[in-house]
Design brief:
One of its GO terms (biological process) is proteolysis. This is Dipeptidyl aminopeptidase. Keywords: Aminopeptidase, Hydrolase, Protease, Signal. It holds the Pfam family Peptidase_S9. It is built from ten helices and 38 strands. With 643 residues, the chain is α+β, with helices and mostly antiparallel strands. It folds into two domains: 261 residues, Neuraminidase, CATH 2.120.10; 260 residues, Alpha/Beta hydrolase fold, catalytic domain (Rossmann fold), CATH 3.40.50. The strands form nine sheets. It has an eight-stranded mixed sheet, sandwiched between helices. A four-stranded antiparallel sheet has the order 1-2-3-4, with no helix packed on it. The longest helix has 20 residues. The two termini are 35 Å apart. The mean pLDDT is 97.
């Protein structure tokens, strides 16, 4: 979402292409009054994203669309400008791509690009061509990290680039290596004179630390503003509209006894004591400065969400909007806020929140029709802790025809079932006739520090006790069939699925996606190995913890049919977890091979999530068909999938 100086509102909206091969983003102008339908601004096969308004009212965006004038690199993202009237033109491009991060009051832009290690913006194009023509793919590593989510680290050096109004590029960080800015967040001061950026450095033990530096855009002089240490690090710097303050997120280092806690701090640029925002139980999500100098913060809160306005002088906060999960905050000049709002029953919809706090939906593509069931908040007491969750029940469920019930456990573990998800959409199962329970157990976000740390360090027995107790509290309902149940989870939820499979036979089917299986293995091979080993330590130091909680230790006890799904490009939970789990399941089956109940859906092009539309469709169809077979007694899923 983006708001312009003249009240315009623009959104980037994704939809699947006609082949189901990819999601394509385009820019749409929304009516800020909520009266008129949205108007599409851009069309291209490559798509357009990251809209921002320039001071002159033109619209800046990122796209890898072909440059009709032939000035931009083919198939790499460039910064484009769309005037109020006329065609879009390339503002600036670079061989390694160029994305837009911020815009100053005079129209100067901050961008990010990448060059091959040891190179410059001037020589990068020639070096890339030579490497591509030679089909060279080597990466020289000198330390950690070497991966992030689904891509390599070490093959490119990310750079912060100052882009003039005319498109001239200045590399602000010509001396950095491959790690310093690999995950950097940065902002440009309103006067264009200073860049604030996170700055990552390697330290002992395979760890990294992220500090905040200030870069003078005229001299490239760099000074440290906030220096990380063993206890905390900093990220997500954001200048206030007057440039006098910098909002940053301070995160403590996780340990075997405490998870990482995040604090939103406001630092005076000219010196002075920082102010810490008082956010209560809110877990920090999106942050944006309003024109009047207040700091807006959106995040998870009590299985829902809220937007808070923070006084930068005192840190005190007040509620701007609640009863929904808000993101992509875009404050407008009139004091209103444009944002995306979602909940369990509603996909992300653009809303305009007035200065009085009244939200109004803005017409835009992507709305859904009537849901196939009802949504209810349920809760129960677990050892003095109030544990709640959302219960989705199909309209067809009744005492005469009770619905089979699914228990879903979310990932993270710091997450919350509080918003719509197209990847894990319970309403697809509800339409199929299943009731779905979505708990927020221990370590869920939006319940303050105590909620985040309850069950730490990632204790599956604590989480399952809370989920199972809530599950058992709803099963006696006459419209639910307690004799037909399934359990599903992804990432941490997949780890939970794997652990549960070895510790109970109560479910008729279990689906595990991107789940951890052998913790001694995963903690070293994940892209987050440093934090995993810091928290969980070596198995020789805490052997009982690994014996009790690594799912593979209970492989011999698994009797429930399991569907394993995993993406080959997943570096957070590497495919080796699924491969080892699959071997353990198949090799342990002592019956005829054709009678083995377990199945493995391998998605070779996907990462931690299934994002390609056609793969997502096949994944959902497979998951539901597997549950139909083992929960409802439907026909077996065929050996050759028909979808």
């Amino acid at each position: 979402m983006a708001t312009g100086p003249d009240g315009r509102v623009v959104a980037a909206i994704q939809e699947a292409d006609e082949k189901g091969a990819r999601m394509v983003s385009s820019l749409w102008e929304l009516d800020a009054t909520g009266e008129e339908q949205a108007r599409r601004l851009t069309v291209s096969a490559k798509g357009e994203s990251a809209p921002r308004f320039a001071p002159d009212g033109s619209l800046l965006f990122s796209s890898a669309r072909p440059d009709p004038e032939g000035g931009a690199e083919d198939d790499t993202a460039a910064i484009w400008r769309l005037p109020r009237t006329g065609e879009a033109r390339v503002v600036a491009s670079a061989p390694g791509g160029l994305s837009l991060l911020a815009v100053a009051d005079d129209g100067t832009m901050l961008g990010a690009s990448s060059v091959l290690p040891g190179g410059t913006l001037a020589t990068d194009g020639e070096r890339r061509t030579a490497r591509k023509n030679a089909k060279q793919t080597t990466i020289w590593h000198t330390g950690m990290p070497i991966r992030q989510w689904d891509h390599e680290i070490g093959d490119e050096s990310r750079r912060l680039v100052l882009v003039s109004v005319d498109g001239d590029l200045t590399d602000l960080t010509p001396d950095v290596g491959t790690v310093t800015l690999y995950a950097a967040s940065a902002d440009l001061s309103p006067d264009g004179a200073t860049v604030a950026s996170s700055w990552t450095q390697r330290v002992r033990g395979g760890e990294t630390r992220s500090s905040i530096v200030l870069i003078d855009t005229a001299t490239l002089r760099r000074v440290a503003l906030l220096t990380a240490d063993d206890d905390a690090q900093y990220g997500d710097p954001l200048f206030s509209r007057d440039g006098n303050r910098l909002a940053v997120i301070r995160s403590t280092a996780s340990s075997p006894t405490d998870t990482s806690y995040s604090r939103l701090e406001i630092h005076p640029i000219g010196g002075g004591e920082p102010v810490t925002a008082q956010l209560g139980d809110l877990s920090i999500g999106d942050v944006a400065w309003a024109d009047d100098g207040t700091l807006l913060v959106a995040g998870d809160l009590h299985s829902s969400g809220a937007i808070l306005a923070v006084d930068p002088a005192t840190g005190a906060s007040r509620t701007v909007a609640e009863h929904g999960v808000f993101s992509s905050l875009a404050p407008a000049a009139d004091g209103s806020v444009v944002a995306l709002r979602s909940d369990i029953a509603t996909p992300s919809r653009p809303v305009r929140i007035s200065a009085e706090g009244a939200p109004r939906e803005l017409p835009a593509p992507g709305a859904v029709g009537a849901l196939p069931g009802t949504l209810e908040w349920v809760e129960t007491d677990v050892d003095g802790i109030n544990v709640g969750g959302w219960l989705c029940v199909p309209d067809s469920a009744s005492a005469a025809t009770p619905a089979p019930v699914m228990l879903w456990i979310h990932g993270g573990p710091h997450g919350s079932y509080n918003a719509w998800s197209w990847r894990w959409c319970p309403w697809l199962a509800v339409e199929r006739g299943y009731a779905v329970l979505l708990p927020d157990p221990a370590m869920s976000s939006g319940y303050g520090d105590a909620g985040l740390n309850r069950g730490w360090p990632r204790l599956p027995d604590v989480v399952f006790r809370e989920c199972e107790t809530l599950f058992d509290s709803v099963l006696p309902r006459p419209e639910l069939d307690a004799t037909r149940t399934a359990m599903l989870g992804a990432s941490f939820g997949g780890f939970m699925a794997n652990w549960i499979a070895g510790h109970t036979d109560r479910f008729d089917a279990i689906v595990t996606h991107a789940g951890l299986w052998a913790l001694e293995q995963q903690h070293r091979t994940t892209d987050a190995a440093a934090s995993k080993m810091r928290v969980h330590q070596h198995e020789d130091e805490v052997p009982e913890w690994y014996r009790q909680y690594s799912p593979h230790r209970a492989a011999a006890s698994i009797n429930t049919p399991m569907l394993v799904t995993h993406g080959n490009r997943d570096y957070r939970v590497p495919i080796s977890e699924a491969l080892r789990l699959w071997w353990d399941l198949v090799s342990a089956w002592d019956g005829p091979p054709e009678t083995m109940p377990h199945r493995f859906l391998q998605v070779t092009s996907e990462n931690h999530w299934v994002l390609t539309p056609s793969n997502a469709l096949a994944w959902n169809q497979t998951v539901l068909a597997f549950c139909d077979q083992h929960v409802l007694g439907a026909d077996p899923v065929p050996d050759v999938l028909p979808w």
